[in-house]
Amino acid sequence: MGEQIPIVDYLVLDDGAPYLNANACEECGALYLDRRNACAKCGKTDFGKKKLADTGKLKSFTIVHRAAPTVPVPYVSAVVDLDGGGAVHTNLVNVEPEPEHVRLNMPVRMTTYVAGVDVDGTEAVAFGFEPAEGN
Ligand SMILES: [Zn+2]
């Protein structure tokens, strides 16, 4: 099996169970998954790292029926509020992409999957969120 690399740099795969690693404002604690020059909330420029929870609740979603030709539709595009803070724009996976199977505030948890493999066998690993058990 080849090496695995995360499809986004804030997805950490080589430190136990996969998790999202946010940039946390040292001043006010605001969390960002992308790189920032300054905090959007307080304007300060010092950031640390914060490991985010892999569980949360579905804050909003839309069922996408049109996309680029190579993207299978329909799929569920979502925003998840993570337990303990932070939010992530993601896809809801392992669920029927129909309104009766998706509801606001449903508990979800992160999962990873192989999004592609290159000629050397290196796997690009992506993440999504799926309905949590007991839901
Ligand atoms: Zn801040």
Notes on the structure:
The protein is mainly beta and 135 residues long. The chain has one domain (4-130). Helices cover 0% and strands 47% of the residues. It has strands at 4-6, 11-12, 19-25, 31-32, 47-51, 55-64, 75-82, 87-92, 107-117, 123-131. A hairpin with a 4-residue loop joins strand 7 (75-82) and strand 8 (87-92). The radius of gyration is 16 Å and the shape is globular. The protein starts with a strand and ends with a strand. Bound molecules: zinc ion.
Question: Summed up, what is this model?
Answer:
The protein has 135 residues and is mainly beta. The protein is 0% helix and 47% strand.
Which helices and strands occur, and which strands form pairs?
Blueprint: E1 4-6, E2 11-12, E3 19-25, E4 31-32, E5 47-51, E6 55-64, E7 75-82, E8 87-92, E9 107-117, E10 123-131
Parallel strand pairs: 1-10
Antiparallel strand pairs: 2-3, 3-4, 3-5, 6-7, 6-9, 7-8, 9-10
| Ligands, ions, cofactors | zinc ion
Q: Which radius of gyration do the C-alpha atoms yield? A: 16 Å
Instruction: Report how far apart the termini are.
Output: 34 Å
The ordered string of helix (H) and strand (E) elements is EEEEEEEEEE
Instruction: Give the count of helical stretches.
Output: 0
Instruction: Tell me the number of strands.
Output: 10
Strand content: over 45%
What is the spatial order of strands in the main beta sheet?
1-10-9-6-7-8
Shape: globular
> Structural class, judged by helices and strands?
mainly beta
Amount of helix = under 10%
The overall pLDDT average reads 95
Q: What key attributes describe this structure?
A:
globular; 6-stranded mixed sheet; binds zinc ion; mainly beta; 4-stranded antiparallel sheet
